[in-house]
Amino acid sequence: MAGILRNKHSNTDKLWHVQLTMLAAIALQIALPDNFSVTAHYVIPFIEILLLAALSFTTPHEKVFKSIARRVNAVLLIAIATLANGYALFTVANELLKSGSVAGGRELILAALNIYLTNIIIFALWYWEMDGGGPGERSRVAKYDQDFLFPQHQNESYKHPDWKPMFIDYVYVSSTNSMAFSPTDTMPMSRRAKMLMLVQSSVSLITIALVAARAVNILR
């Protein structure tokens, strides 16, 4: 994740929508009921907003850059959001499996949808931040050092020397991985990419199979 960075180059990703997407994830966390939060309801979103704002100071304004401070800032922000969403899923699943305790089906469906959408956003940010060392490093690393193999890099008919993945490409990868529980057109090349996709698809499977299916059954 690149944080607050001016886009001065036509072939550079416009990064304001990355920040807007993170704000959407924070809004989804706020929309969850209090009992799904790991701490006081607004504490985690408040910390995330502070870290998001801090990226304006830790992100260099060069097209190609390497910044440890920005990297730590971005990874910490996404990690907190990931843990918060994981706790919400654990709480919902625990309530469903707890003997003699059945929550309202409508609330469970809404919570499951919230967790599922947040999961897509969070892993899109993970892929964006991880691939090729992150947005500042990705422009200068060789294709074989990147974590994902996009169709534009493997199909001779579509190859273009100036093509680079943008944030929307990672949103697509995250969305299709959540829906199919596996990679589709974009292949993970590194072990860390494979492990992240495995975790994401597992969370999606649990959310859909355990939570949503049980909630629909309660509504009958």
Question: How would you portray this structure in words?
Answer:
With 220 residues, the chain is mostly helical. Helices cover 63% and strands 2% of the residues. It has eight helices and two strands; from the N terminus they run H-H-H-H-H-E-H-H-E-H. It has helices at residues 16-31, 43-58, 68-97, 105-130, 135-138, 151-154, 167-180, 191-219, and strands at 148-149, 187-188. Helix 1 (16-31) runs antiparallel to helix 2, helix 1 (16-31) runs antiparallel to helix 4 and helix 4 (105-130) crosses helix 7 (167-180). The chain is globular and about 55 Å long. Residues 1-10 have low confidence and may be disordered.
Low-confidence stretches: 1-10
Shape: globular
How would you write the strand order of the largest sheet? 1-2
**Cα radius of gyration in angstroms:** 18 Å
Number of strands: 2
Order of helices and strands: HHHHHEHHEH
Would you tell me the overall average pLDDT?
81
Which structural class do you get from the secondary structure elements?
Answer: mainly alpha
Oligomer: single chain
Number of alpha- plus pi-helical segments: 8
What percentage of residues falls in helices of 4 or more residues? Answer: 55-70%
Profile the largest sheet: 2 strands, antiparallel
What is the terminal separation in angstroms?
42 Å
Please state roughly what percent of the residues sit in beta strands, choosing from under 5%, 5-15%, 15-25%, 25-35%, 35-45% or over 45%.
Answer: under 5%
